[in-house]
Amino acid sequence: MKLDNVIAVRNDKTIYRDGDKCIKVFNSTHSKADVLNEALNQARVEETGLNIPKIIEITMVDGKWSIITEYIEGKTLEQLMEENPHKKDEYINLMVDLQLEIHSKKSPLLNKLKDKMNRKISQANLDATTRYELHTRLEGMPKHTKVCHGDFNPSNIVIKEDGTAYIIDWAHATQGNASADAARTYLLFNLSGDTEGAKTYLDLFCKKSDTAKQYVQKWMPIVAASQSVKGNEKERDFLLSWVDVVDYE
Fold this sequence. Notes:
Elements (H helix, E strand, L loop, with lengths): L5 E4 L3 E6 L2 E6 L5 H15 L8 E7 L2 E7 L4 E2 H7 L4 H16 L9 H11 L4 H13 L5 E3 L8 E3 L5 E3 L6 E3 L1 H14 L3 H15 L3 H15 L5 H11 L6
Antiparallel strand pairs: 1-2, 2-3, 3-5, 4-5, 6-8, 7-10, 8-9
């Protein structure tokens, strides 16, 4: 196994390419349970038939937990948007179609989105009154069992040369309400500073899924609060500013 071709470096992992394999090496501080959970998520989503890289092996590399998958040759949708800005609406349209395909799948053994969000809201840096409001709102939302990606953004979509799209990075996959997943994608566009892309995305998602925009917006404070637990201080402050839209009675 050769580790000389670095594809990406993140806070807690380094991703390498070795021929037709992709090797994701986690830092030694990264929880073993989280690595195994990510691999299990990906294996379960594989069984739905979606186009995703297949897991080949879970192993140790230099004493660090690693996940080895197929390497998907191509460009991310994020790269294509940068290279062809005039096609951006077309790319967002494709993105929504791919997300709706994910939401059409079931995977009964995936963790439940609501359970994860409840746990994250409890950990959020918010006062007890706000946390109570968010828990209550979350409890009142319809319970669904659709596959949700949890981090669906243009950098996690790879387009092969023949046009086939693959969806990568299933670390945050759960089963739950599709509109919560859409709220997360909307916030990710905003987090990257692309408010125009966020609006285009939300309009298209609501139109294609026949979902009221207000319904997705009801999820935004809940999703923002649950996502504020991780990430850097700037991201946290941005996400917590969305929590202020909670309606108090």
